[in-house]
Design a protein that fits this description.
This protein is mainly alpha-helical and 175 residues long. 59% of the residues lie in helices and 5% in strands. The chain has one domain. The chain is built from 8 helices and 3 strands. Strands 1-3-2 form a 3-stranded mixed beta sheet. α2 crosses α3, α2 crosses α5 and α2 runs parallel beside α6. The two termini are 30 Å apart.
Amino acid sequence: MATEHPMDRTLRWMSENLAGAQRAVHLPGHEDAGKPCTNSGTGIIVCCYINALGKVLLKGQGKDHQRFKGFVTQCMQPFLQAGSTKALPPPTKTKKPGGEEWLYHVYRCGFIHGFYPGNARWRRSANSRYWTQRGGVTLNIDALVRAFFDGVEVFRQKAKDDPDLRTNFGKYITK
């Protein structure tokens, strides 16, 4: 059996971890026991993986927001376009509108640093829309996960086009 390349193994692990989090259900004793739940863990995992792969794309350079933005802008164009066409208002932490700003400043920072992203909401839905704005900005976690999985495929192509990304994947992701 051939040995799996570290980049391929890491991308597989990311996909498996994220898919597992997305399948989370409410625990026994909860009024919705056994039913799918929307959890901030799925959001945290997506955001961490976006950041990590952005670090590889930027070859270990840049700060967190630059790395995060690097992956979103290079590998998640449909997500970015949806955030632009929805005319999302600027989040309170920044004056820049758009999905990337909301995802980073409100959701990623909210999940990681503040536990809960304030007045922003998230939901699970088979609907393909990333964002809704009824009663506030709401992120569709399932659509975000699909966008990330699609972004991983774009990332794979970028690694084919720039073999340095694949060759130095381990060095860049840990830098």
